[in-house]
Design goal:
The protein is an alpha+beta fold. The protein has two domains: 2-189, Jelly Rolls (Sandwich); 202-313, Homeodomain-like (Arc Repressor Mutant, subunit A, Orthogonal Bundle), CATH 1.10.10.60. The chain contains twelve helices and ten strands. The chain has helices at residues 13-20, 65-71, 127-134, 151-166, 172-189, 202-215, 224-231, 235-244, 249-267, 273-279, 285-296, 310-313; strands spanning 2-4, 26-29, 39-45, 49-56, 59-63, 75-90, 93-97, 102-106, 111-126, 145-146. Strands 1, 2, 3, 4, 5, 6, 7, 8, 9 and 10 form a ten-stranded antiparallel beta sheet that branches. β6 (75-90) and β7 form a beta hairpin. The relative contact order is 0.09. Residues 194-199 and 308-315 have low confidence and may be disordered.
């Protein structure tokens, strides 16, 4: 099920979005702009909740105490910021959300949000179902942010990303079953402590680091600082773990991008090389070509040439 603002007149887009998607919130304002407000929601239903894949332009929204008292707030929302940033207010607590953050909203409680242009994946869980499993603990988690990347939060985020990619290919009954698994993971997440320091060491730490790199190759600006934040450690700790493996952080990110392009050259022979490079985080085609040839001993185009010798392919 999909909702979007495509094809609507500029005067109707925000009104439509408020009535169909933001029914739990009140729109305060949007940013002044010459472009009409744009948004999209892909929504999949399950027995105990819903899965959302959502994009929105800049929007200011609020859920007041009066609104909470009026409609009760029967859901708990757990969201993962994929792209962009946003700001949330829970009473006197303010949070700046960035990509990779997981946050919790109990719609029985007030909230204000400044949604910057962003994409997020989330689960809207029946509040009664959560309370039946977690008891009063479910009522106490609203406004909490999971920033430390433990193995479990990384697993949960990866499950949401995979669900977003594969859900359109599944039958409705299959979608429901997979969403129920995600809901169970979310409720397990609610049993853990947010902002807890990660306990990953050695091989487990490096596996989590490489998984983060692999999942974020499309981000051209992915940096050691971003990676450290995603793993919940300092920059120094990140570099220390990589040095133990005889690897550099920046070099590992670059080489992972190049290896991914190399694999895609064979997997997607009809796709343009520039498109594959862009999808793996390379913005400058000339620099990419030089790095690729330095790494593998041949130009990207030669990897699609059946006459290329095995020496270059195995480089």
């Amino acid at each position: 099920m999909e909702f979007n603002t495509n094809g609507l007149s500029p005067n109707d887009t925000l009104r439509y979005w408020s009535a169909t998607v933001l029914k739990r919130m009140e729109v305060e304002r949007t940013a002044p702009s010459d472009k009409p407000f744009q948004a999209r929601l892909r929504r999949s239903l399950a027995r105990n909740g819903e899965f959302w894949d959502h994009y929105s332009d800049l929007l200011y929204v609020e859920r007041s105490r009066e609104r909470c008292a009026r409609d009760g707030g029967e859901e708990i929302y757990i969201g993962l910021i994929v792209d962009g940033c946003s700001n949330l207010e829970f009473g006197d607590r303010r949070f700046a959300l960035r990509p990779g953050d997981i946050y919790i909203v109990d719609f029985s409680q007030p909230i204000r949000a400044e949604w910057l242009p962003h994409r997020e994946l989330g689960l809207l869980i029946n509040r009664r179902h959560a309370i039946d499993i977690l008891g009063d603990r479910a009522k106490m988690r609203s406004g909490e942010i999971f920033r430390a990347r433990s193995s479990f939060t990384t697993l949960f985020a990866s499950h949401l990303r995979l669900l977003a990619a594969e859900a359109p290919r599944l039958a409705q009954a299959e979608q429901s079953d997979v969403i129920e698994v995600a809901i169970q993971l979310a409720l397990l997440l609610l049993r853990t402590d947010p902002l807890a320091p990660p306990r990953l060491e050695g091989a487990a730490f490096m596996a989590a680091a490489r998984r983060q790199i692999s999942e974020r190759l499309s981000e051209p600006d992915l940096s050691p600082d971003d990676l450290a934040a995603a793993l919940g450690c300092s920059r120094a700790t990140l570099y220390r773990h990589f040095e133990r493996e005889g690897a550099g952080v920046v070099e590992t990110i670059r080489d992972s991008r190049l290896e991914s392009v190399k694999e895609l050259l064979s997997a997607e022979p009809s796709a343009s090389i520039s498109d594959l490079a862009f999808r793996c985080g390379f913005l400058d085609q000339s620099s990419f070509n030089k790095m690729f040839k330095r790494r593998f001993g041949a130009a990207p185009s030669q990897f699609r040439d059946p006459t290329l010798g095995t020496r270059s392919r195995s480089a």
